[in-house]
Specification:
By secondary structure, this protein is of the alpha/beta class. It is built from four helices and five strands, in the order βαβαβαβαβ. Strand 4, helix 4 and strand 5 form a beta-alpha-beta unit.
Length: about 140
């Protein structure tokens, strides 16, 4: 978990739970559920989709949201669902966290390797480096 140095966080009442079609976005649910339940959190299931993606990827995002919605209902978790089309998924997650006044973002980690990683920032790094709230990155 990465926590901004200037703030102190003890409770997480509003959790942003981004789901990306490129990763197995529901893997983090088992780790997140105890945090959600202990804090009696409200969760936003959020799927940011890049604006150049195909209808198949939009359908995949809808499927992920539906599966996560089912898991949340099964776990008796109060939640909302939202899909946004954007140019930059990581910055859209950060923007949505601010808009919804989230106190925690739970993301799936993605690690770039090789030479290209020296010149570009991946999704995980971008969310962590730009978020003003704690980010739990699940590998």
């Amino acid at each position: 978990m990465t926590i901004p140095t200037e703030k102190k966080y003890l409770n997480f009442k509003k959790i942003l739970f981004p789901l990306r079609p490129a990763t197995s976005g529901l893997d983090k649910f088992e780790i997140a559920l105890p945090i959600i339940k202990r804090n009696k959190s409200k969760v936003l299931l959020f799927a940011p989709i890049q604006d150049n993606k195909t209808a198949i990827e939009l359908e995949t995002a809808n499927d992920l949201i539906n599966k996560a919605d089912h898991l949340m209902r099964k776990g008796n978790v109060f939640h909302e669902n939202e899909i946004n089309v954007t140019q930059d998924m990581a910055l859209e997650v950060v923007k949505k966290a601010i808009e919804k006044k989230s106190d925690l973002i739970i993301i799936s980690a993605s690690i770039k390797k090789g030479l290209i990683s020296l010149f570009t920032q991946n999704y995980t790094e971008k969310v962590i480096n730009n978020a003003s709230v704690p980010v739990l990155s699940v590998k």
